[in-house]
Amino acid sequence: MDFKLTKIAAALAASALLFGCGGTYDPNAGTGPNPDPDPDPVTGQYVAITDTSADTSGSFKYSIVDGHGFELDTGAVSVDVMYPTNQDQDFSIGVYDESNSTSSMLVDIILKSDGRIVTRQNGSADNTLSVEHTPGETATYAVTWDAATATYTLSIDGTSILTAQPFNNTDATGAAYFGVKLGSNSKIAAGISTIDNLVIYSDVAMTTEVLNDDFEDYDLDYDLDGEAFYSAVEAVVAGEDDDGGEEPGDGTSYDFEDQTVGTAISDVSGWSSSNIGDQEAGTTSAEIAEDPADAEGKALYIADESSSTKPSAWVAFSEASAAGSVSLDVYIPEGNAKTTYINVGSGKNNSDRYFELRISGSGNFQYEAGSDDIDLDGDVTIGEWNTVDLSWTDAGIFTVTLNDTVVGSGIDQADTGLDSANTPSQVTLYTGDTSGDANYAYFDNITSSLF
Questions:
Q1: Domain ranges, residue 157
Q2: pLDDT confidence of 280, banded at 50, 70, 90?
């Protein structure tokens, strides 16, 4: 997919973007929709679940007995799940009885890193289904249960997978909790798994809602543990909203189409640059150039052909902002030996950085964290346009999206080693370093409501 074209189209149609239309618990909810057989990719806000401790697992649960008043002897649940391509640990989708323990679950659907789907039967998670899930894609999982027959059904994206399947715990009298779990108490998970559009019903026909939450009404990076009838470990609200992390695509966009090829970026309104021109050890430039993937298009081109300095370009916000977002397209050509950088901060110098993204010549995507930079959950594709969305809250919590996929969520600026006093007032772009002399990068569609 050409994410550059996708982003341009999105910018032209920003007013047509659709998000969830509510996310509050309503015990008096009436007839609800059947699960969407063809869910859209995760957009807006959702729950991001991580497992960064070898002592606990990441988890998110809803208490049916507390929220509804009693357990449900019949009922159903529908939830959208995204298991990322780099995930290496199990992800469980489960219905629990009043003991709230794994061993006595009614239903346990387990997604494996190799695509297998396994269910728990008689206490053992060893029943492999004939269908597989696709890592990196969002799917709707719907489960119904009936304690009178001690059976359940499973459908995925509207397709029936299991019917009249025996409960794992055939003595269960009903469902008291619904929950998802990532990883185990002894391992750390590599990726971020997400859920969205959680709906619980009190009947197998899926007509009477007990809970309907699309997580749009929470603040970004909100810890859901203890919220309403939720409990959670490493489960926070992620995505973009209008309070401390605007939706990328709004505001001013620099697409450079009205500029002349060869124009210095410092001659473009709002832009500045440094270390540009003939240097003692080579030449550096930051100028408008032909789009490397489309001869009829234009982009900002930054070239480091000097072994004594590195070029940079930046565009200022209208004012410093403790919360905001930036979206841009980046193209890294083949052959770079050094890193390309994107940062927000209070100036162009290293000491001015607030948060910085790093792209290696091979496409490794990281954020700055001192001596041990942290890998994000996806790589930049070399020789193609890639869209990067960066948003942050006034608490200093960052979300990074690459080509419409969240690759980093709940990132605390305080853990990066950069100065938290550098309230972002500009976006700075640069490539190369003071030793390499053959590093190049293109940027386009640089967009933010802060400009």
A1: 22-239
A2: low
